Amino acid sequence: MSFAEAPKARPIPRTSLCTKITEKATEFFTRFWNGNPVVNPENKYVFITGCDTGFGRAVAEDLTQRGFNVFAGCLTDLARRELEQWFDSLQKRGQFLKQPMKNTLYPFVLDVTKEEDVAKAAELVRSVSDGKLFALVNNAGISIDSNIDICSVSDFERVMDVNYLGVVRVTKALLPFLLRAHLPRVVIVSSVAGTLAAGGMAPYSCSKHAVQAFAHCLRREMGEWGLAVSLIEPGFMRTPILFQIPENSKKIWARAEPEAKERWGDTWFQATSRSTTHMTRTLAEDPKLVVDAIIDACTLERPSVHYRPGLQAKGYFLPMTYVPDYLFDKLLQFTDWRRGIPPAKLEETKRVTVDGQDASALSTTSAATTTTAAPATTAPAVQSGAEPGNSKPKRK
Question: Which of 246, 168, 164 is closest to 204 using CA atoms?
Fold first, then answer.
């Protein structure tokens, strides 16, 4: 048989680009048709920090009623006992209705700044859940809001230790348990302050920026293991942490450096306190918006990366991320509720400014005037050959 008569080789089967696109499109439309289903809560464990009040407390109660097994970390023993009493009453109601609960709530004391507390919490998860954790909600946080010039370095360290390093400690301790579960996820309660940093809340904004970076790194590094990471980024919400801001600001102002207090002045601080109180009463939104976002991130099969609950987050802060910095600075100055109340030193400078001349120019002009006028106050010099009182020389 000649070479020309040889049978043609069969083509090697391969996955073409069109086939891959078809598979991805089929998967997408299947998901779109079926929607984003809610996971079955049976035998699933959720770990939540900061369950004393606010978002954490509401989420722990909601997920428990939905059938999840919840580890609720509380900073104080009083909050732990309150959660135990609430769960006992829930169980009694279920027994009365002949609907006994199959899940359990595990409240315990947890300080995210202490390594020993985090280690005990990890051991509790290992012993109860057989080393599998479905979801972690990093909610614990504090707020210290003031200017950089007024805050101390310890204020920055305190906020970073809770809001950022607390998230790192808990996540690293529980990450092995998350990777053993099906569809695991980490939910981190951040803020719009983690995207846009306005003046007057430097320590809090710095901690939330760090949390945002940690969440993005965690999602991109652990995506191969199927770990989903969601960021909750609300605006101002009516929570205890927001209503504590005016009182905390007074404490920060009381221990500020004398030079800084003189620079800004009591009038400026009082105006800032009044405007902050006004903000907490009028601009803050319903915290249930944030609770619903956390619940979605914990219960949906495919949680989103970003949740921005509330009108402020979606309608103002999100569009501002696309605005150039110089324009955003101008907008902040225009919308600043403290405008018209300048710091003490700036007000003092304005008072001494006359006709566009600053204080240094005024002092220089005054000194020159004094030097020029000085000879006029002395007796005129007598020329050679002239008599006193006569300016003309005497003829000989």
Answer: 164
Average pLDDT value over all residues in the chain: 81
Whether the Cβ atoms of residue 106 and residue 71 lie closer than 8 Å to each other: yes
Q: Around Cβ 24, how many Cβ atoms within 10 Å?
A: 10
Q: Is 79 exposed, middle or buried (0-12, 13-18, 19+ CB in 10 A)?
A: buried
Of 186, 214, 218, 212, which is closest to residue 197 (Cα–Cα)? 212
Cα distances (angstroms) measured from residue 55 to each of 93, 106, 180, 283, 373: 24, 17, 27, 18, 74
pLDDT value at position 384? 42
Contact in structure between 109 and 74 (CB atoms under 8 Å): yes
Active site residues: 204
Question: Beta strand pairing status for 69-74 and 45-48?
Answer: parallel
Q: Tokens 């004391």 sit at which residue?
A: 109
Instruction: Give 250-280 pLDDT, tens digit per residue.
Output: 888 988 888 988 888 888 888 888 877 777 6
Question: Quick check: 292 and 308 in contact, CB under 8 A?
Answer: no
Of 49-58, 214-223, 256-265, the poorest mean pLDDT is in 256-265
CB-based burial label for 147 (10 Å; 0-12, 13-18, 19+): buried
CB 52 within 8 A of CB 79: yes
Q: What region does 50 belong to: left with phi over 0, alpha with psi -120 to 50, or beta?
A: left
Fold observed for domain 39-239+286-325: Rossmann fold (3.40.50)
Residue tagged 């109860």 (tokens):
128
**pTM score, two decimals?**
0.77
pLDDT digits (tens, 9 = 90+) for 96-107: 666 677 889 999
Specify the amino acid at residue 323.
V
DSSP string, 162-180: IIIHHHHHHHHHHHHHHTT
Residue owning tokens 């940093």: 197
Delimit the domains of the chain by residue range: 39-239+286-325
Beta partners for residue 237, in sequence order = 285
* Angstrom distance (rounded) from CA 270 to CA 272: 5
Residues 6+ apart with CB under 8 A from 362: 352, 354
What is the C-alpha to C-alpha distance for residues 152 and 258, in angstroms, rounded to an integer?
12
137, 46 Cβ separation under 8 angstroms? yes
